[in-house]
Design a protein that fits this description.
Blueprint lengths: L3 H13 L1 H9 L6 H27 L4 H35 L6 H35 L4 H34 L3 H37 L1
Helix pairs in contact: 1-2, 1-5, 2-6, 3-4, 3-5, 4-5, 4-7, 5-6, 6-7
């Protein structure tokens, strides 16, 4: 199990020197599923929890019920990240196996988390910074256009970091399986497509059920 300082340092190095870092960690056979869980769980406590508490504070609503909703959101997010990350890794594992890759599922889960954790932290930090700046700008009577431009800039940076995260994921998978970048891209693209399609199908199902309910009540 990695120490906290070693873990956060690996995130920094993954952002700055991804090729070298992913290669070094791919050689460490002792890093597996538990370390992957730590990599996914630690950023939630470091960034997502402060973000939720910031939302709670800025809302001005100090009722216990509202705090309970935020804590429930934190728990649901934690559970959701685990389900999605494990499902993604499981599908990527079988795709990689089909493409000729050979590695344990736990090792792949760790390498996926090594790419995902720093991008998750960076994205949440951006959201916190944008939220604080927007609050300051509103307090100082900045125009709606200025606040909107700040939000657009924050969204653009967040999207760029997410795309960079896919690049990190490609390097991580390639470092583990050593079967080239095209196959590494295929290993994460297939499960990503499945998860997006499943999410879209779920959204459409919920939307149709809601429309049916509204039609019946009108």
């Amino acid at each position: 199990m990695l120490k906290h300082s070693e873990r956060t340092n690996s995130w920094n190095m993954m952002m700055l020197a991804p090729g070298k870092t992913s290669s070094e960690h791919a050689k460490r056979d002792e890093l597996g599923f538990e370390d992957g869980l730590e990599n996914f769980g630690t950023p939630i406590l470091m960034t997502y929890l402060p973000l939720m508490l910031l939302v709670f504070t800025l809302s001005g609503n100090m009722e216990p019920v509202y705090l309970a909703v935020i804590l429930f959101s934190l728990a649901a997010t934690t559970f959701g990240i685990f389900v999605v990350s494990f499902s993604f890794t499981l599908m990527a594992h079988y795709v990689a196996k089909f493409l000729g890759g050979d590695a344990k599922l736990g090792r792949l889960y760790y390498m996926v988390s090594l790419a995902a954790a720093p991008t998750f932290v960076f994205t949440i930090v951006i959201n916190i910074a944008v939220m604080l700046l927007k609050s300051i700008m509103r307090a100082n009577s900045f125009s709606i256009a200025s606040i909107g431009m700040l939000q657009l800039a924050g969204d653009a940076v967040a999207v760029s970091v997410t795309l960079y995260g896919f690049y990190l994921l490609t390097l991580s998978i390639d470092a583990l399986y050593k079967f080239g970048k095209p196959k590494s891209v295929a290993a994460w693209l297939a499960p990503t497509t499945v998860l997006i399609a499943a999410g879209a199908l779920l959204f459409m199902t919920v939307l149709l059920d809601l429309l049916k309910f509204l039609i019946k009540t009108l």
